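Appendix B. One record, verbatim.
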Amino acid sequence: MKLSTIISLWVLAFFNTVLGAEVVPRATFTEVTSYGDNPTGTRMWLYVPRNLASKPAVVVGIHWCSGSAQAYYQGSMWATYAETYGYIVIYPQTPYTRDNCWDVASKMTLTHNGGGNSNSVANMVKFVLKEYSADASRVFVTGISSGAMMTAQNVMAATYPDIFAAGIAYAGVPAGCFMSADDVPGAWNSTCSSGQSIWTQDQWANVVKNMYPGYNGPRPKMQIYHGSADDVLNVQNYYETIKQWTGVFGYSATPESTTPNFPRAPYTKYVYGDKLQTFLGQGVTHSIDVFPEEDLKWFGFVNPVQPSPTTIVTSAAPTNTAGTGTAPRWSQCGGNNWSGPTQCASPYSCVKVNDSSPPPSMLKGASLLITLQLLSRLVTFVANQLLLRYLTAPLLGLSTQLEVYYLSVLFFARESLRVAIQRRSEGKDAASVESQAVVNLGYLSIGLGSFVSLGLGWMYLSYATEATLQTPYLVESLYLYGFAAMVELLSEPCFVLMQTRLQFGTRAAAESIATFLRCIFVFGSAVWASKNSDIGVLPFALGQITYGASLLLVYIVSGYQLASSIGFSLLPRSITTKDGRFWGSLFDRQTIGLAGSMMAQSVVKHLLTQGDTFLVSLLASTNVQGAYALANNYGGLLARLLFQPVEESSRSYFSRLLSSATPVKEGGKPSPAVTEAKQNLQTLLRLYILLSSIIVNIGPFAAPPLLALVAGKQWAGSGAGHVLAAYCFYIPFLALNGLTESFVASVATEAEVHKQSGWMGAFSVMFASSAFLFMRIYPLGAIGLVLANIINMACRIIWSGAFIKRFFKQHGAEFKIKSLLPESTLGVSIATAILLKQLKIADNADQPIKTLIKIAGSAIPLLLLILVLERHFILECLNSVRGRKVKQ
């Protein structure tokens, strides 16, 4: 697996499995490394549905510029609908990694069997037709353009008309429009993109015919979508494309019929003949909408293949149903623009192709959500800095206690279930059954959360000091935090559903919107309170309710759309299968058993994770609590932004990749999946260590002046700056522990989970003892708590490291811990830290900006040395991302 997959764990989650008897396992997104002649090194991913038709059709889905096969798989509905209609989906990925665009310019790709990108994609199709005995008369191609290079769908239709029966082009240009005069693969053609390539109908038709000289057979039928306000590929390309294909088919350039507001406003449908339809969206930019229901109809996917029998019934009423009569077994009986029969022959079931709102642009799905995530973090950071001007250290300390209560309710209610559901192996039932099973499991968190919130709330009120209870609106805020936790838990069924289907974009959107609105409510109410009356920690409680309600709304909307398209309910519903694997016809027995086994470990793990807050509230004053809370928030910012996404994505990735891994005899060879997992884990850990060497050498010196600059000198004077400096030494331990424990959680057996729980219990005792020692015997305050955390994390890393070595040894691979250590880099980093300390470069606390400039200047030599010392490793990473091998 390329290192590009490893790096992309920061954005998206990937998975793969060990190859089975077929080319790829059913219902998985899997790369095929050998599919025949591949002149350009184009990569191929394949999705074969669990419910495969006897003679399946084939759909080729081609990604956009800056995209990938994975992004197209996650951003489109083709794999989802494959489970209904039984076709196979091919996801090619361009080898030209500079912009991840396709070659639509060279003579190679614009010629039948010319040795270009189009040649490789055609060979993918031939491979699938042979291996799966697929229907050669039903091969289709589609894609969406992002910068003109993704007009490969027009190129494929022109160069291989003998393979494809139909094509759909979203926001593209005419075939051959990007032709390079210098025959440069992937060259950009500004004349074409700006709409200045204007030819006659015959000239454009000849371009298509010259791509396959001498071919006189049938041509694929085409649908063309474009936006009138396209700022990347001028709308003139839409009109030129019409010229091209009307010329190919011998149609008039004047449409036979025009249908406004179809498939919906602001699009208008134009029909030029039975083989050409076009759609123009007024005011639509290059981020064009995609219409999967129309795509399915154009490709002829009307009658679903027979699914596995279940008790799940889709009760949504069909729309636009004017027909009469009786539909045969498993046939369609309703849906968008359906005019056939709505009744099914007794006693059989029939299928309604469910209505759904048009999904957002795939371009937005690939890039806008990432932008939203970064923007929400920026807004949160700015709002928090402003909020600090209106807070005191004791008030911040109390808000941290309430947040721990809130997080504890959520953690105990859902964490073990989340991990168990991620590790759940799907059965052989239809996609609707498996989705319903996941939704049902999500409701267990709601019931458990109601008990946990009441119990923990009672404990807090019982043990809180009188001074704490006298804080204005503290009790009311506690009740609101408990209510907010329950509101957020209501979204858990939809959350686990999106996670198991690897739709991380929904989570990114939900958390971005919720975080943004929470910031507004907290900051607004705090400012109001500063000018009117003291309302204590009530602003934080109001913000948390806003956060939970926002999450719930986004997840319900996304979940409803998915439920409508697949055919399951967002409410608990009974499930009946022959193997009886559901307890009470609702809950998967195996998953509940695993969650129960993990519950004890989750309790210990949470106590260790939040133990610092528990202990600081018991062993320190509210002023010290506030200083530690501030340092913890700033110090944990990097972990939340960078390390937490890696931890969560790694857990999903390794769970999928190693789900079928089995131990081998001594001396046996590891499976490809085990080898891949070892390489990727080693690379991630080494990257972590390199980043950590920078943090621990520059961070402690930069922390105090940086805190004085962003939070105010009053906070730096409270001791929070020195606590934040100590926290910089804790961040690497936090990061390494998160990654190693994610791997353990992905592969550990039930017995190993119990063993880990026992060791974590021992570590919790060591942590509490260390904290008492450093905070009471040696009164180091919040810094002592940081030291106790470091000891705790070090113990957990050692245990996880030993587990990882043992796991790979049992599976035939050797995991060398020493190979992870960049020895020269560590030596230079230590020397740099000693030099900065001797120069007393951070001693001038009254001039934070000047101090930060000096520190930044001192950091440059360290960064240059790391680049030199680790140049081979860094170049290997960069070249792997580009799809190249490093020359030794």
